[in-house]
Structure formats: structure tokens, C-alpha cells
Amino acid sequence: MSPRLVDDIATALAEHGLIPRGGFAFGDGDAAPAGPAGRPARSALLVGQAGAAPWPHYRNWLERQPKDLENPLDSWSRETIGKVARAFGAHAVSPSDKPYLPFQQWAMRAEGLKPSPLGILMHPEYGLWHAYRGALLFDAEIDKQESLKQIHLCDLCDGKPCLKSCPVDAYSETGFAHRGCLAHVRGPTGVPCRTGGCLDRNACPQGLAFRYPRQVQAFHMRSFGGF
Q1: In what order do the strands lie in the sheet with 91-93?
Q2: Can you list the alpha helix ranges (DSSP code H) found in the chain?
Q3: Start and end of every 4Fe-4S ferredoxin-type domain (predicted)?
Q4: pTM of the full predicted structure?
Q5: Cα separation, 33 vs 28, whole angstroms
Q6: 155 FRET partner, CA 20 to 30 A, in 21, 62, 126, 162?
Q7: pLDDT tens track for 51-96
């Protein structure tokens, strides 16, 4: 897969607020999913976002959908990335496909990122305000490029405010207390989280220019809480 092809894909994705998020070639020992021809794919190009750039495109699409549509953001991502995949002879896959694909490992491989204490990959420019929405799989091998060795900003952070802002200590060095977090978000004291997003995530000082607007964070928290 040539750099020119990646540039053309980037142009097509930009119409929807999406961007390429790095790619890699599957090795002989990888359990590669099927590519366009049905054989194990030779390479993958991840697709995602920086900040909330896709939000207006998603909202415009949502206005034309049934009101009772389940998981609309996943549906929009699949439809949008699927169209781009077909235009470039690729096969599209999604993080919510079952059986689940190792998107986090793919992302670490493609972009050289590491997880933050919250589990979200820390990006040197976007901070915690980015996401992976899908991947394009190809039968051809991508031009091999070593992922850059990124500075892991969490290693340089002494205060770790992301572990000190949650009122129920949902995140700690031992992991994520899912049940405690969910009960808090659904409860009477969880209004700030429901309306403005995760307090721990918002406490991180990195990538503030890409921080999701409150309505976008509220959307994700409603999804998490099952509202």
C-alpha cells in the first residue's frame, strides 16, 4: 500500500471528520482477520478521530435515522468507514465487532502509544481526547514504517491528577472499579459526570485543545450509564 493511497484515504476520511491513525503489516505469527479476498489480511490501517471532529457529521447523519436506533455512533462509524473501505478495495472492521479484535494492541503497534492510568492510550498531541473507530484491512502489504517512539507523557507526570479527581476512586493503580463507577454515574451524586464527563479524564492537563465539548462527553457518559 503506497503513501499516495494513504493520502487519498485521508482525504476521503476528512469529509467525515475522521483521520488515519497509523498502519502496520501483519507478520507470519499474527492471527490476522480476513481481508477483502477472504484470506488473512496482509496489512491494516486504523481509522479514528482527534478531538470531536466527527461529531457534527455524526449528528447530521443521526437526524435521518430512526429514533430508536441502537448504538447509533457504532452504526455511523461502520457505515462511514465501510463506504471508504469499499472505495479503496479494503475490508472494514470495527472495535465493537464480535469476536472482539485487539484494537488497543493494534493502536499501540501502529502509533507507538502506551496506556494512561485510565486505560485510554496517551497521545503526545491529543492527550486522552482521541478514539479509534475502525480499521481498513488490505490484501496488500503496507509500506513498512516503524512506529515512532513517542514520549509517554504519563511517565513525566508527577501528580497523577487523573487518579485523584473521581469522588468514588474509580481508577487506581490496581485498575478500574467498573461497578463503583457505574453506580456513581447512575446515582444522585453523579450529575457532574453525567453532564460534563469523567472527572478523572478531565483532570488530565494534556491535549486540552482536543478536549471533547461537554455535550459530546455527556453523550458518552449516557451511553456508559445505559440512559
Answers
A1: 19-25, 43-50, 130-138, 91-93
A2: 3-14, 55-62, 72-87, 103-111, 178-186, 191-196, 199-203, 214-225
A3: 144-176
A4: 0.93
A5: 13
A6: 21
A7: 999 999 999 999 999 988 989 999 999 999 999 999 999 999 999 9
